[in-house]
Amino acid sequence: MGRIDNRISSEPQTLDQLEREKNMMPFTKCPICGGELEAKEVEKIVRGGKHTAILNVSAEVCLHCGEKLYAEETVRYFETIRHKLQQQETNDFQVLGNTFTVANESAQRAL
């Protein structure tokens, strides 16, 4: 059985701290640079096989270095989408257009 941590903080928690705990965000500062974090809606690109999906999700974003931190639930969502892309189970996804790869040599000649 797991251990339950019954520690009680002597300082009251702010609404922001409670929201971070609820969303399982263990950081109050950026783990990369120590900068301030702010909750934002961000665009995340997920690739699977030959397909790519663009997702709009919530993240904690460092205001100094731009590092994005995702809740555990959001990371599981990325894995689900990646698996669907790999298996080509894209019927419930909205098609936005085509993606192309351009070889460096071709791109240079075009200029």
Task: Characterise the protein shown here.
The protein is of the alpha+beta class. It has a single domain (15-110), classed as Ubiquitin-like (UB roll), CATH 3.10.20.860. Helix content is 27%, strand content 23%. The chain has three helices and three strands, in the order H-E-E-E-H-H. A three-stranded antiparallel beta sheet has the order 1-2-3. A hairpin with a 5-residue loop joins strand 2 (51-62) and strand 3 (68-69). The longest helix is centred in the last third of the chain and has 15 residues, at 72-86. The radius of gyration is 20 Å and the shape is flat.
What is this structure's SSE topology?
Blueprint: H1 15-22, E1 37-48, E2 51-62, E3 68-69, H2 72-86, H3 104-110
Antiparallel strand pairs: 1-2, 2-3
| Stretches with pLDDT under 50, minimum 5 residues | 1-11
CATH fold naming: Ubiquitin-like (UB roll)
Strand order of the largest sheet: 1-2-3
* CATH architectural grouping: Roll
Order of helices and strands: HEEEHH
Residue share in helix: 25-40%
Structural domain count? 1
Give the C-alpha Rg. 20 Å
Helical segment tally?
A: 3
- The total count of strands amounts to 3
Q: State the name of the first-level CATH class.
A: Alpha Beta
Into which percentage range does the β-strand content fall? 15-25%
Q: How does the major sheet shape up?
A: 3 strands, antiparallel
End-to-end separation: 65 Å
Class of secondary structure makeup: alpha+beta
Average predicted local confidence, pLDDT: 81
Form type: flat
Q: Descriptors for this entry?
A:
3 strands, alpha+beta, flat, 3 helices, disordered N terminus, three-stranded antiparallel β-sheet, 111 residues
